[in-house]
Amino acid sequence: MTDGLAVVPARDRRDQARQLAEQVTATIGRIILGKDREIQLALTCLLARGHLLIEDVPGVGKTLLARAIAIALGLEYRRIQFTSDMLPADIIGVSVFEQNEAAFRFHEGPLFAELVLADEINRATPKAQSALLEAMEEQQVTADGNTYDLPEPFFVIATQNPMYQIGTFPLPESQLDRFLMRISLGYPEAHLERQLLAGEDRRSMLDTLESSLTRHDILERQKAAHSVHVSEAVLDYAQALVRFTREAPEIELGLSPRGTQDLVKAARCWAMISGHSGVHPEDLKTVFTPVAGHRLRTRNDTSHPDPDIAAFVLESVPVP
After folding, report:
1. I need a labelling partner for 72 at 20 to 30 A (CA). Which of 52, 132, 215, 315 fits?
2. Residues 77-104: b if buried by 16+ CB within 10 A, e if exposed
3. C-beta neighbour count of 124 within 10 angstroms
């Protein structure tokens, strides 16, 4: 009887996580049409305590998605428009001498928010891009020798234009590796685009969104994700995928240990919002391309990540 009682709360927690994910997806889906999978991947990324990179052409709703997520999850939101003349202090903040106090006082930059949109991040120079590295990894920033903690949760959504467009600076591998996931929205299907043309302006609809979660809810579910069971067989599958990326002759740069950890963390969170009792191989397959696609390099073209190589890895490694 005791064992049975112990199982029920776990099942209830799984059902609650799945229902909340469905509610959040439905809320944001009123604004971002036909992109439920991408919305769920973004939620997975947040619950895994990672950061999200959205790469796509201008005008497909990248910024709108970030704003909708912030509203639906009840998170403090700030947007940083990256430009070629931006300096690290424009992101982190700056110390200003206060005459009344006869001392320098640190004024926080826009990075001090629970959800930060780094819009068109690859339009800034590498010096400005590097200002995000410590924040994304350590959830803190250092200015003038002092360390300042960032809010919790802390979620960066960065948007990136395709590399072939004018005025872009490619993100270095060290920065790409800080993003737990990369996704793309793509163009809407014809019938959904018709709804956009005939319906209400999507930006004005943001005012109608209601928060589905609170900050406390998010922190609790981030903690709960760590308890999602991962079997030895699934860990074997994860390691087999990673080993293939490091040994395949077609791949120049394989998945790093941080990328491997991110893969398992993301699979745990995807399993949780899917209502699974543990991580299934399909959960790993679902998150593999968003987690690994921007980290892998092929030998014949090392100038930018090749998302197709992730599909090649999944096809080459058998599921246990």
Report:
1. 132
2. bebbebeeebebebbbbbeeeeeeeeee
3. 27
Question: How far is Cα of residue 60 from the mean position of the Cα atoms in its chain?
Answer: 17
Q: Would you give the DSSP letter of residue 164? A: T
Is the model's pLDDT at 4 over the cut of 60? no
d(CA 197, CA 201): 9
| Range 97-104 average pLDDT | 81
Please report which confidence band the pLDDT of residue 2 belongs to, taking 50, 70 and 90 as the band edges.
very low
Residue with tokens 């909340």: 20
Q: What is the mean pLDDT of residues 118-128?
A: 87
From the CB of residue 281, how many other CB atoms can be counted at a distance below 10 Å?
16
Rounded CA separation 69/61 (Å): 12
Predicted confidence (pLDDT) per residue in 202-246, tens digit:
888 888 888 877 888 899 999 999 889 999 999 999 999 999 999
In this structure, are strands 52-55 and 155-160 parallel, antiparallel, or unpaired?
parallel
Any idea which residue has 């992109």 for tokens? 35
pTM, two decimals, is 0.90
Query: Contact, 93 vs 108, CB < 8 A?
Result: yes
Across the strands, what pairs with 115? 77, 155
pLDDT recorded at residue 167: 63
Q: For residue 159, what are its two tokens?
A: 């948007």
Q: Which residues contact 11 (CB under 8 A, 6 or more apart)?
A: 277
Give the chain's domains with CATH numbers.
Answer: 30-201 (3.40.50.300), 224-320 (1.10.8.80)
Contact 142, 134 (CB under 8 A): yes
**Three-state DSSP state, 180:** coil
Mean of per-residue pLDDT scores for the chain: 88
pLDDT band at 18 (very low <50, low <70, confident <90, very high): confident
Which of 291, 293, 262, 264 is CA-nearest to residue 280?
A: 264
